[in-house]
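User:
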Amino acid sequence: QVQLVESGGGLVQAGGSLRLSCAASGRTFSCYAMGWFRQAPGKEREFVGSINCYTGSQRYADSVKGRFTISRDNAKNTVYLQMNSLKLDDTAVYYCAARKVGQSYDYWGQGTQVTVSS
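Assistant: Predicted structure:
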């Protein structure tokens, strides 16, 4: 079992930056791939990016590529989402999630709100 808690959301002007954190507890954090997802009002939850278990390789949605960066600190059991050049369309509740290799995302945080204003 893995427990995830996101933090760092808030209100930011367009063009600004935020860094979200996701603190994990429970099973060995380093063995889980971590993902970030978001859900805007009236829309389905969508994939933002992920970082894998051991190599740290990352994938990003096209909509955030070049603006968002995911990193992880296994010693602190924490994964980060650095968001730069934020746009109004980035407004959403952001969730982190964890999965074992080859499995689906089974563990989810409660989400943190990010609001980008003009």
